[in-house]
Write a structure and sequence with these properties.
The structure holds two protein chains of two kinds. Chain A is mainly alpha-helical. Chain A contains twelve helices and five strands. Chain A starts with 10 loop residues before the first helix and ends in a 6-residue tail after the last helix. Chain B is mainly alpha-helical. In chain B, α3 packs antiparallel against α4. The longest helix of chain B is centred in the middle third of the chain and has 16 residues. Chain B is globular, with a radius of gyration of 17 Å. In chain B, 32% of the residues are buried. The chains are: A mainly alpha, B mainly alpha. At the A-B interface, α4, α9 and α12 of A face α1, α2, α3 and α4 of B. Chain A: InterPro entries: WH_DNA-bd_sf (IPR036390).
Chain lengths: 262, 60
């Protein structure tokens, strides 16, 4: 599995990655705000109960070794403060842009175009979006129907496959029939072992949210509903964070006498 | 547009949504599928590894 995938593909790493990015972008906007350090990151995610101080420290060391963050020069050498690399920042600007494009498909409000003309909007938007997500228990403590998927690296991709492969309009019936590829096909597609996918499917099947009967492969209505709630949460927080970020960016522009893009 | 113009304009015309609003919209599913497809389209334009991470990030 590609190494970058590991930093966003399961819920624990998603929480730490977006916590780290929120600190990075906030500090970039206002250098008086806390920078990305192990202590600050733990403070950011502590309430989720997802990571211990040691986990956070190891995570930062790991992404530093991989080149996703760089050490900031600091007067106090005992405090290791980091900044995201340009590559990491770009990756998450794109992440936000794609959510905005999705929202624009719904209402044609043109958010993605506005953000592409003024990157400051995305810099402001990320910490607002991430902190709303990180403080939403529906997100960091997902329901049992989808939790096994969100807690493994390959799970979210399998969940995406399941939920976009519906054979019928979502009706939230007990069983929704889907056109899902085989464990082998998914394993090949995502570059993981077949055993990984098969074990995950077996776990979801044992929990009663996935199976096979004479009509074909199905997922439970509950699994589908819970996945949509989680995705809608991401879109709802993206929509509100965008508006706030747009205002903050305009205030910046006013202070710096820059043009405002709307 | 100057900041004064912007500040006096109603830029809150960009809608916000609740989770229930979104789920009730017929276009919501299309919006999710589009997000995933856009990540896939991105794979043709950059290193496969970084694109893969984005595809996964789209899910979460």
């Amino acid at each position: 599995m590609p190494r970058e995938v590991r930093y966003v593909a399961d819920l624990r790493r998603w929480v730490m990655t977006h916590g780290a990015l929120a600190l990075n972008f906030s500090h970039k906007i206002n250098p008086d705000l806390p920078s990305l350090t192990a202590t600050n990151l733990f403070r950011e995610v502590e309430h989720t109960g997802i990571a211990s101080p040691n986990t956070v420290t190891s995570y930062l060391k790991e992404i530093h070794a991989r080149g996703y963050i760089t050490l900031l020069p600091k007067a106090d050498q005992r405090v290791r403060a980091y900044a995201m690399t340009e590559f990491s920042e770009k990756m998450f600007y794109l992440y936000l842009q794609i959510s905005l494009q999705g929202l624009d498909l719904i209402d044609g409000a043109g958010r993605a175009d506005i953000a592409s003309t003024d990157q400051r909007i995305l810099t402001h938007m990320h910490p607002i979006f991430a902190r709303r997500m990180l403080n939403d228990p529906v997100y960091y403590a997902p329901p049992s129907s989808i939790a096994p998927m969100l807690n493994t690296t390959i799970g979210i991709s399998v969940l995406n496959e399941m939920t976009r492969a519906q054979k019928e309009t979502p009706s939230y019936a007990d069983r929704i029939y889907i056109d899902l590829g085989s464990a082998s096909a998914m394993a090949k597609h995502y570059g993981v072992s077949r055993g990984n996918v098969a074990r995950l499917l077996s776990k979801v099947q044992n929990a009663g949210h996935y199976g096979l009967d004479d009509r074909g492969t199905w997922v439970s209505g509950q699994l589908l509903r819970d996945h949509y709630v989680l995705q809608a949460l991401k879109m709802a927080h993206s929509a509100s964070a965008f508006i706030e970020a747009q205002k903050l960016s305009a205030e910046d522009a006013s202070k710096m006498q820059l043009p405002v893009f709307t | 547009m100057t900041y004064a113009d912007f500040a006096s304009s109603d830029h809150n015309t960009v809608p916000t949504y609740t989770v229930d609003d979104l789920i009730a919209l017929p276009a919501f599913l299309e919006c999710l599928i589009s997000a995933t497809s856009n990540f896939w389209r991105f794979t043709g334009k950059c290193r496969v590894k970084s694109a893969m991470s984005l595809i996964y990030a789209a899910g979460l």
